[in-house]
Design a protein that fits this description.
This protein is an alpha/beta fold. It has helices at about 5-15, 20-35, 40-45, 65-80, 90-95, 105-120, 165-180, 195-210, 225-240, 255-265, 300-315, 315-320; strands spanning about 55-60, 85-90, 125-130, 145-150, 160-165, 185-190, 220, 245-250, 275, 295, 330, 335. β6 (about 185-190), α8 (about 195-210) and β7 (about 220) form a beta-alpha-beta unit.
Length: about 350
């Protein structure tokens, strides 16, 4: 249609327009636009050493954190001209939390996905966890670069990108202290959860650096949801532990929403009688009254940096040898100040 060779068309479509005159390149691009030509990426991958395709394995797309990380990695891949193939294992949708305690169920979902990624001839794989936890008992294929986001492994050849939850927990408590609060309660998630452990380390660090006494009796571990927050805050109130508490740090916005209700039912006002800080910056934070001060998660940045890393590994084999230097990258969270914390004048 353009009156040129196949190789000239190929060069122009693959960004090598310097190998054709401006007029020829323009004519080819105009023809492509006019006829709606789309390249066959599968056929192209069979001829190419680098398929320009990244496989993404997601533990579960319904988890709130997954979509934002995928948005970040998609932005990076588009900037670098990479295609993305996404496989959703649906671990929560299939087995709720049971898969976390049953390696058989987990491998039942993962094995066929790994086989499929290998058959698609992807250049690299990004594994996205539904929450931060260690991936154990998995022999990932050694012939393809792998990066983990929101999860980690003891394989030193696999770089990981995670939240800096210790920093987030520390910032939440330091903010309350800057606002004049000293008697601060904590509503954590389950006590053996990685997020809870890291955020609690941040809480203790904030108290230590401020030379203030940390009271473990003001810590209640609960479920990550509304009910957990309500029950946890009610326990603090019923036990009398919250009598002189002026603020509570909740390790999720859902927990904070439950705490709001328990505070109200006790005849007090959130943000006035007891200040509240949440975590996650989910949509509910701006719907609560008063609007919830919270910690925003850098989920898009985690996805972007994970994609940037895998692309570097795909295009630079030397990067694979240095992958150990990229191990365990932790990205800091950010405080979003709203109206749920009252300043206490000294």
């Amino acid at each position: 249609m353009c009156g040129v060779s196949v190789s000239t068309v190929s060069n122009v479509l693959n960004g090598k327009s310097n190998k054709a005159s401006d007029d020829v390149a323009a004519r080819i691009k105009e023809t492509v636009e006019r006829v709606g030509y789309k390249p066959n990426y599968l056929a192209k991958s069979l001829r190419a050493v680098n398929t320009k395709t990244i496989g993404v394995i997601v533990e579960d797309l319904i988890v709130f954190s997954s979509a934002s990380m995928i948005e970040g990695l998609m932005n990076c891949c588009e900037e670098h001209g990479y295609n993305v193939v996404i496989e959703n294992m649906r671990l929560n949708g299939r087995w709720h939390g049971q898969w976390m305690r049953d390696q058989r169920l987990y491998m039942q979902a993962l094995r066929p996905v790994l086989v499929k990624m290998n058959s698609l001839n992807t250049d690299g794989i990004i594994y996205i966890g539904g929450h931060e936890h260690e991936i154990v008992g998995v022999d990932f294929p050694g012939n393809i670069p792998i990066v983990m986001a929101y999860s980690y492994t003891n394989d030193m050849k696999i770089p990981t990108f995670r939240l800096n939850d210790e920093y987030g927990g520390c910032e939440a408590v330091k903010y309350l202290m800057r606002m004049g609060h000293k008697k601060i309660a904590v509503l954590g998630g389950e006590f053996d959860n990685t997020h809870t452990i890291n955020r609690m380390m941040g809480v203790q660090k904030a108290f230590f650096e401020a030379k203030e006494l940390f009271n473990p009796n003001l810590v209640v571990y609960c479920s990550w949801n509304y009910e957990g927050g309500y029950d946890g805050m009610k326990k603090l109130i019923d036990d009398g532990a919250a009598d002189d508490v002026t603020a509570v740090f909740c390790m999720s916005d859902a927990i904070a929403a439950g705490a709001y209700e328990a505070i109200k039912r006790a005849g007090k006002m959130p943000g006035e009688d007891i200040s509240v800080v949440g975590y996650d910056n989910q949509e509910i934070a701006s719907y609560l009254y008063p609007k919830l001060t919270t910690i925003a998660l850098p989920l898009e940045e985690i996805g972007y940096q994970a994609a940037e890393q895998i692309i570097n590994m795909c295009e630079n084999t030397e990067q694979n040898e240095r992958a150990i230097e990229q191990k365990n990258t932790k990205i800091p969270c950010k405080l979003i100040e709203r109206a749920s914390v009252k300043r206490i004048e000294k």
